Amino acid sequence: MKIDRLVSIIMILLDKKRIGAQELADMFEVSPRTIYRDIDSINMAGIPIRATSGVGGGFEIMQKYKVDHKVFSTADLSAILMGLSSVSNMIRGDELVNALAKVKSFIPVDKAKDIELKTNQIYIDLSPWLGNRDIQAYLEIIKTALQESKLLSFDYADRYGNKTQRVAEPYQLVLKGSHWYWQGYCRKRNDFRLFKLSRTSNLQIQIEGFTPRDYQKPQLDFTDILATIQTKIKIRIHKSVMDRVLDYCTYEHFSPDGDEHYIVNFPFIENEYYYNILLSFGDKCECLEPLHIRTEIKHRIHDIALIYER
User: Fold this and answer.
1) CA distances (Å), origin 303, targets 279, 287, 288, 310
2) Residue 196: which CATH number?
3) Are residue 228 and residue 298 in the same domain, yes or no?
4) What's the pLDDT at 245?
5) What angle do CA 11, 17, 22 make, to 5 degrees?
6) Which of 60, 108, 132, 304 could form a disulfide with 18 if both were Cys (CB 3.0 to 4.6 A apart)?
7) What percent of the chain shows pLDDT beyond 90?
8) What's the short name of a Pfam family annotated to this entry (predicted)?
9) Contact of 254 with 202, CB cutoff 8 Å
């Protein structure tokens, strides 16, 4: 059960006079049964919610009831503030400012310092160190288009740099592995596509709106697929690149090789992406086996050397 969903339901009930179970279920993409369990949990926490049946029925907080600040623990409020603050650092908006203000209103005066300390124990900054400075502006554009159901026009570059002009219906913003993506229905491909934000340029909101269609969320977990296509190769690395190699495998894959080096059982797929990963380690990495991958890397290094000999 997610505390952020429970808090959101409370906020909605405080803002709305009455709302139905199915509407809440659609809003949070869960089943009505889950909503009923959430309502029971909120009631058990001391907030009296009344259910009415029939046309126009739904859930509502009993009239004249004021939410007791003691409903949320220090840990609850710290977790909510931490999540809202990290998102608001990257995505601006009045609704996030209002949500932060509402949550802060629940903080008892005698707990303020303790909650501030716990909230600051973990800081999440989603903005990049370097790179595409259009990302934050584009996030704002996509967020507005999502809220208003407006079409987006943009140029999109594939993995080889080939650009095409696109128009798409936006449906979801996704943060995956420190990269932003957005899910949209592409009018050019007549299908749903997951667009990487860093490959998007000239992004603009169109005047034309659209009627949202049924869609499935993009597949983001490839653990099972990777397990069937990845193989382990043996590489020897210098300790200076250890932290970078750890981005792709765990320390259990490492074994010391003298004072300066490690032998690593490295997860690998024979494609451009993984060959480029190995080459990015430069002379601090040597592929030991299998032989055919070692040979392919030698050929690639030779081709790179030829570029600089011209």
Assistant:
1) 12, 17, 20, 11
2) 2.30.30
3) yes
4) 93
5) 75
6) 60
7) 39
8) HTH_11
9) no
Same domain, 63 and 13: yes
How many domains, the chain? 4
pLDDT value at residue 101: 64
Write out the DSSP string of 228-241: HH-EEEEEEEEGGG
Which helix (DSSP H) or strand (DSSP E) does residue 35 occupy? Answer: helix 32-44
Query: Model-level pTM?
Result: 0.56
At residue 301, the pLDDT reads 95
Structure tokens at 231: 């193989």
* Side chain identity at residue 259, one-letter code: D
State the Cα–Cα distance between residues 232 and 237, nearest whole angstrom: 15
Cis before 290 (ω within 30): yes
Average pLDDT over residues 46-69: 74
Q: Which residues span the domain enclosing 55?
A: 3-67
Given 67, 87, 102, which residue is the final one in a domain?
67
Indicate whether 217 belongs to any domain: no
